[in-house]
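#struct-help
A.M.: can someone run this one for me? Single chain, 760 residues.
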Amino acid sequence: EDPGPPPPPPRPPVKVTFAIDMETNFGDHLAIVGKHPLLGEWVPSKGVPMDWVEGTRWTATVYLPEFSLLQYKYVVRQGWNPNGEARWQGGPDRIVATGNHHTEQSIRDVWTDGDWGAENPTCKALNAAIAAFDEVRPGDLGYGAESSTIKNTATLPEWARNAVFYQIFPLGYFGAPTVNDQKSKVAPRLKQIREHYKHLEELGVDAVYFSPLFESGTHGYDTFDYFEIDRRLGDVKLFKQIVKELHEHGIKVVLDGVFNHTGTGHFAFKDLTINGPNSQYAGWYHLGARKADFEGYCVVDDMSDSGFSYDCWEGHPVLPRLNLENHDVKQHIFDVARFWVDEVGIDGWRLDVAHEIEPDFWREFRAVCDNTRLGKDCLLVGEMIHGNYNYWVGDDRLHSGTNYQMSHATWFSLNDRNYEYFYNALLRENCLFSGLTLVNFLGNHDVPRVASNITNPKHYLHAMVVLLLMKGIPCLYYGDEFGMEGTPADGTDEHSGGDDAMRRPMLDCAKPATWPAVGVSRVALNKKLIKIRREHPVFGIDGTQDIEDIQLLSNDQIIVTRYVKETDPKTKKEEVTAVGCLVFNCGDYSVDPWPEITLPHGIAAARKGEKFTDLLVESPPGTVPAPGAGQFLVNDGGKIYAGPLGPDSVKVLLWEKPKPIVVPKTKATPLAAKGSTMNVAAELTAQLDAIGKTTTTTATTTTATARIDAAPSALDPNGDLVRNGGSLRTWSERQWVPHPNDAQLQVADDARAEEERRRR
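D.P.: on it. Structure tokens below:
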């Protein structure tokens, strides 16, 4: 039996968390570098990148060998280029002395400037101590660089691998009131989505992610009851039917799980407001005796003004934070997860502010979801605004996270015409998250809409190509496909902080006249790009996106080349079966000559004469594309000249290895005898359909009905359709002419002949 790959190297047993306060410039980051393979052997690009937490605070967690004495320093790196500039911390080297097996240590450092010099007494003493330790210690216990660079991976459920998501903010989408008075009758606004099923299907959506649906007080994130649908939208019975209908349309359903905090109307917090710290639910929240302990405060006794303070999300008193270390709280949340998956039928969760919750909680939550009816197919996506996503995403935690860093990089690089910023963001993603597949987005319920965020409307194309054809899981925000607008400055709802401007009612999908002026063209573009992604795997999750295949040509131009690599079943060797090139120009000028794209030597796509096709080239309706339109030939050395490139334009170039055409040996219906009258076009079409081919015919008087006067060579002895003079012929204008499918069938004939030759 195949033993499979060797187990990963052991992780060092001592967990050390480093923290330091340091002001940095935009685009810079800190790293820990030291005299050990785990710390990069003093090479900044191989050191341990730190995470910005807030303000000027940076942290990093490193696993180090036990009973070791290690030198290290902090470095400010400019961007993520391995050869980029780095500013070293001054003063003597820092030293960390690790403890026993499985211990945890925390180090809070202060930045030092200036070179103290090798003769400084402190520097000399520290170097002497390290030298003495190295002389007698028993090595590093086998923990090399690979121990700290084990690539974190997260395997997605199969259905999510190539899915296109569509986010709906229900309270806004369906035009619900901004406040829930807790008295009104259930309003079944959810059923309006039935009018949009056709739009979702035609757009190419595979999954709908619903922002909060649970009973709440205002915007949905202040949950009152996790087991009920908000009365402003409907009830559980209606939503369960909606889920069933979406499944029938081939669309999965993901819900927003707001488990970091509740609203003040949640039953546990309401009991607290009555009974104070003596409540049986006192352990469900983070409470304090003094007003100064936390930002939230609740008065229990009006006469004495006594009460309790409580922790709340980002200082909002209406959002008290749950104590997710409490056993009863965890069981409550786990019951919620089981209910909506097992009883209602949803397919996964988007988890609000997941980066503010300890990874161990998500490990338990993952185990619960893995034991629902879906098993390993229950998708978990965490909201990740900042930090190192590897802490929360992994095969025992969440499947994916929201890629805020690439969202920001996409629109900022276009508005600032600065693809260097975009390139550095890709470098960071490649360095930190190469084993993860993150959820990409450009708009959502918390950020300005794409149409409002992109200053040059022509760059909408660039942004959507990045979203839909680059690495990651794309998620469209409802209405962005039409060009809906909205920024927080436009909002008027006091409960939403202005975000209601990005949460306006959905447009009527069946009435283009009600759409923005750019609506028709933008919907068409989104449909086209999603179709390209679906039909050509190189632009989906199967395509590579290695940093060495990305060419930053200038601040205005960049090329991203992606490959699909497969193992040939006969040779057992890996080969490139598809190449996709995304060519961007965000400058307001034409580029010609355009730098060439150089393909790797030895791949089939690099052979001289191979053709790449620009999938965005379209001909006016009713016209035939000019010969060679949108095609680019590979030249000597595997080079493609993709120019010229017009102002503010994009090209999507594709090469795919031709797939062999297998024509089954099917007995065709005999043609009519010579001299008889028949519908030749229809007969030929039927025969080609029988062998798996489709032909387009034009019904005219001379092609639809004619007398067969062809030479006998047009028919075999049994009257079947055969090749006449070495090629398939079709009857037109009283003569046999080459059939449009002849070239493809000829390839199949050649393949069969070659196979027969080899067999003999």
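A.M.: thanks! The longest helix spans residues 327-344.
D.P.: also worth noting: The radius of gyration is 32 Å.
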